[in-house]
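Inverse folding, one chain.
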């Protein structure tokens, strides 16, 4: 069987700080995730706090809660889950005084060639490779994106023994991390939180849910995306209203990728400047991405 290869991204890295800063409207998620990962990885700082405020220790919390190493990010498509998970290690490193943090990403073919028995051993291998790749003094984050594929509730699987053993292997690895002295946090990302196995969910010290932007945030997204375009007073509100007139709400990426790109293309093709008219025309033609349904990833 071919050995599993994890992609590695080393932080701090200025380009990731930019990506992190460009995520709009999710400041609370940003600070909660930063803090959750910090409490998993930044033991030194935590011990300083403990010594200062609880010199006699907090036995239960130190032995259980503080050893949790799992975080779950779930929610709708195009709402920043992958982007925040990939970029957060740089601001986290800053908080930790510039420590090196390596983000490991599991490959999309974690199932292997689909032979029976491959999935659990590949999950175990992914954790092993990440742990072994960390050099002394380095910190790691193992990203398992599109995790519903391997962490689906054992209840929801009919008789797929392979899938059940996959979830079991994942749970075992997460528990194993608690017993080891290795600085590795695990981040599971999924579109379908309700499909996740309850045993996996209950092991998470933080579960963040991502949603499409609300009216207020939509205005900031439009302002940011079309920065540099001459938009008169009240125009952003008009564009927001046009967005809200659709049956579904737009996701972040509908605006930042599709509408932005098509507006640029249209203005360019017509040899005119980007304007409210061009953006409105594109919004009228662009339907929001469909929502994820529980049984089917559309
Ligand atoms: N909060 C946000 N602010 C600004 N841009 C955003 C935000 N969320 C997402 N985007 C934009 O949408 C793109 C897609 O985001 P991302 O890949 O993180 O989505 P996702 O939640 O992982 O979606 P999926 O579930 O489909 O994988 C990003 O590259 C970014 O340009
Ligand atoms: Mg994603």
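Residues assigned per position:
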């Amino acid at each position: 069987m071919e050995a599993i290869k994890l992609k590695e991204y080393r932080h701090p890295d200025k380009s990731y700080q930019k990506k992190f800063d460009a995520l709009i409207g999710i400041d609370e998620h940003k600070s909660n995730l930063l803090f959750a990962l910090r409490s998993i990885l930044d033991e030194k700082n935590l011990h300083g706090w403990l010594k200062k405020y609880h010199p006699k220790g907090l036995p239960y919390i130190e032995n259980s809660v503080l050893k949790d190493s799992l975080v779950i990010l779930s929610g709708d498509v195009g709402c920043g889950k992958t982007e925040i998970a990939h970029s957060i290690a740089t601001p986290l490193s800053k908080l930790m005084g510039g420590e090196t943090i390596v983000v490991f990403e599991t490959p999309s073919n974690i199932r292997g060639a689909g032979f029976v028995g491959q999935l659990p051993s590949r999950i175990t291998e992914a954790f092993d490779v990440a742990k072994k790749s960390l050099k002394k003094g380095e910190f790691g984050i193992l990203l398992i994106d599109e995790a519903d594929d391997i962490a689906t509730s054992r209840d929801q699987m009919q008789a797929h023994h392979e899938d059940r053993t996959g979830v079991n292997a994942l749970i075992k690895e997460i528990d194993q991390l608690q017993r080891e002295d290795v600085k590795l946090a695990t981040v599971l990302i999924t579109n379908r939180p309700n499909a996740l196995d309850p045993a996996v969910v209950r092991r998470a010290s933080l579960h963040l849910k991502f949603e499409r932007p609300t009216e207020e945030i939509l205005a900031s997204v439009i302002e940011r995306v079309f920065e540099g375009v001459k938009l008169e007073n009240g125009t952003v509100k008009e564009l927001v209203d046009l967005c809200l007139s659709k049956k579904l709400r737009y996701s972040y990426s509908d605006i930042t990728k599709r509408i932005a790109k098509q507006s640029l293309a249209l203005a360019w093709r017509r040899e005119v400047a980007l304007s409210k008219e061009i953006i409105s025309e594109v919004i009228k033609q662009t339907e929001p991405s469909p929502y994820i349904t529980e049984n089917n990833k559309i």
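The chain has two domains: 7-210, 215-285. The mean pLDDT is 89.
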